[in-house]
Amino acid sequence: MALPEAHTPERRRTSRFPIELEVRYRTTRRHADVLAGEGKTVNISSSGMLIAGEHDFPVGTGLEVSIKWPTALNDKEPLTLIGRGIVARKTNGFIALKFSTHEFRIKGKRRAKVTLLN
């Protein structure tokens, strides 16, 4: 799958980093069928991510994503990045998710407050 071409100047406030990681996602609509799937991140920042996935969600769809982070906290504790947001745009099999919330979680613990760097 080819990456979407950039036809406009960069307008984002935060830098996106090219990181390819496995991502699991599911819709967050209440009182409706939940659609879940897997894909790969293309890039990520503190405000959102671009995902190559198997579903084509309409703009405005609420999603929750889960990513096993490649590094551990203090080289011991495995981290999972959990993010929630809405599909901001979609292009040829890619969806751009704009985060409303995101946090790292440590396996077996409720929540860990770890901040993403911009």
> Which segments are poorly predicted (pLDDT under 50) over 5 or more consecutive residues?
none
Structural Rg: 14 Å
Q: Which architecture per CATH?
A: Beta Barrel
The CATH first-level class comes to Mainly Beta
Approximate strand percentage: over 45%
Number of strands: 6
Mean residue pLDDT: 84
Largest sheet: 6 strands, antiparallel, barrel
Query: Can you list the strand order of the major beta sheet?
Result: 1-2-3-6-5-4
Give the arrangement of secondary structure elements.
Elements: E1 22-27, E2 36-44, E3 48-53, E4 62-68, E5 79-91, E6 94-106
Antiparallel strand pairs: 1-2, 1-4, 2-3, 3-6, 4-5, 5-6
What's a quick, concise take on this entry?
With 118 residues, the chain is an all-beta fold. It is 0% helix and 46% strand.
Please characterize this protein's 3D structure.
Helix content is 0%, strand content 46%. The chain is mostly beta strands and 118 residues long. It has one domain (22-106): Thrombin, subunit H. A six-stranded antiparallel beta barrel has the order 1-2-3-6-5-4. The radius of gyration is 14 Å and the shape is globular.
